[in-house]
Amino acid sequence: MKKNDVVLKLSSVAYRYSDAAKDEFVLKDINYEFETGKVYAIKGKSGSGKTTLLSLISGLENKYQGEILYKDKPLKKMDLDTYRNSNVGIVFQSYNLLPQLTAKENIILSMDVSKVKVQDKDKKAIELMEEVGLNKNLANRRVLKLSGGEQQRIAIARSLSYNPEIILADEPTGNLDKETENDVLEIFKKLAHEEGKCVIIVTHSPNVCEKVDEVFELKKRSNN
């Protein structure tokens, strides 16, 4: 895709929990467009549906109203396992790395799960580490021996292992200090502005919201 093409579109999206009343929606009438080559922030108070929205976009939940379109194709008509393992990379606040594995092994495992064809996985893993600003000397270190910032960079490298067009990040700087937060933000901006990826960050951080290309704010719904 070309830079600044619409890669993801939400049209009249609404969602309510299975045990909620019929008119009690956590999300309603959501209409967003996300382009390649841009970094987006989704902000909102606790309970406004930020993480729920990320779950819908990532294909983890498909019982919603409206349409979510990836390249004009409804997610409801796609193989969601393939979508998650090929088209979207997910970065979590808590990193979600496997602690018994090394930095490099965590990245290679992601390649194996996605079944991406890579000639030399060791070499590719180290290239990805270097892309996110990590020294290759850390490749064989267990992730629990790494700092929070280093673990988050590994998590980003892991999400890039199958070259997805969309990066979804759920509070990726929530456990980081301000300086490290800025470093991680620069990685996301580079991925969007130089490599043409679409980066969507759910965040509470005013600093993040100030530095992205576009901000969407979710309002906590009143069901009174």
- Biggest sheet layout: 5 strands, parallel
Structural class: alpha/beta
Strand content is 15-25%
Note the gap between the termini: 44 Å
Strand order of the largest sheet: 6-7-8-3-9
CATH classification class:
Alpha Beta
Mean pLDDT: 92
- At the fourth level of CATH, the homologous superfamily is P-loop containing nucleotide triphosphate hydrolases
Poorly predicted segments: none
Supply the number of helical segments: 7
Please tell me how large the radius of gyration is: 17 Å
CATH topology: Rossmann fold
Find the count of extended strands (DSSP E, 2+ residues).
9
Q: Estimate percent helicity.
A: 25-40%
CATH architecture tag: 3-Layer(aba) Sandwich
Shape: globular
Number of discrete domains: 1
Helix and strand sequence = EEEHEEHEHHHEHEHE
